[in-house]
Structure formats: C-alpha cells, structure tokens
Amino acid sequence: PPGNKELEPLKYSMVATTMSRQKVEDCVQGTMSLFSHCLAKGENVALVLKEVGLLLIEGTKVEMKFYHDFLEKLSGKENLEKVVFKVPELLDMMVSPVVPVSSMTFSGHVILFPEFLMESVPKTPPQILLKPLRRPGP
C-alpha cells in the first residue's frame, strides 16, 4: 500500500458492547459485502457515519460530506467560522443530518448504508386539474 502502512484488522470484540462478537462480525461483513455488490453494479450508495457525516458515491464521483456539529466539535465553533469565512467552498462539504441524502444526488435515489434502504426523492408530477364529481340531484 502507499506509504507502506499496514492495515490493522477490526477488533470486533471492542465494537461488540450489547451483542456478541460473532453477531457484530457478521453484521460488518454482511454490510461490506452488500456495499461492494452495489458498487460493482454501479448503484449510488451512501455510507452514513453516525455523528460524523456520509460518504456519497454516485457513478465515479466520490464525495465526503461532514455534519456541521462534527466539524464544530473537531475544530471549535470560532475556528470553524474563521475557516469557512476564508474558504467558503468548505460549506459544500457540510451537510445537515436532517436533509434527505437522495436530494444530494443527481439521480434522486441512493442506497443508504448501514440501513440498507433505498431512498428516493420523488419527481414532482405534472399538475392535472380534475373536475369534482357531481352527484345526481334528488
């Protein structure tokens, strides 16, 4: 690997707090297997990193979006404001946790991990004017 860094395997027993190590290992491996399968099929995917942000992959575009609260905790409120003032493009890297992930994609749909949900932003249908039905009078 670049930089001759060694990868350290995930210590499942340290992650397993309320469930068995085997269950945690099965969940992580299942998630990564499905994630890999979706990428191989060219699906749009988003890996949600709780309280950090999300990794959004759409086609060949890979983008990391961070939650404002995370960046504020990391750098401090005042420092974050100074940096954003100097480099306003950083605002493009921030996202609110309440914004639908699918609204950040060009296609309007994405598979969210680790929930395995398909999220779509519905396209606005054309407005059709319907006349109210009239009941025959007595």
TrEMBL record:
<dbReference type="InterPro" id="IPR040673">
    <property type="entry name" value="CCDC81_HU_dom_2"/>
</dbReference>
<dbReference type="Pfam" id="PF18289">
    <property type="entry name" value="HU-CCDC81_euk_2"/>
</dbReference>
<dbReference type="GO" id="GO:0005815">
    <property type="term" value="C:microtubule organizing center"/>
</dbReference>
<protein>
    <submittedName>
        <fullName>CCD81 protein</fullName>
    </submittedName>
</protein>
<feature type="domain" description="CCDC81 HU">
    <location>
        <begin position="8"/>
        <end position="77"/>
    </location>
</feature>
<dbReference type="InterPro" id="IPR026295">
    <property type="entry name" value="CCD81"/>
</dbReference>
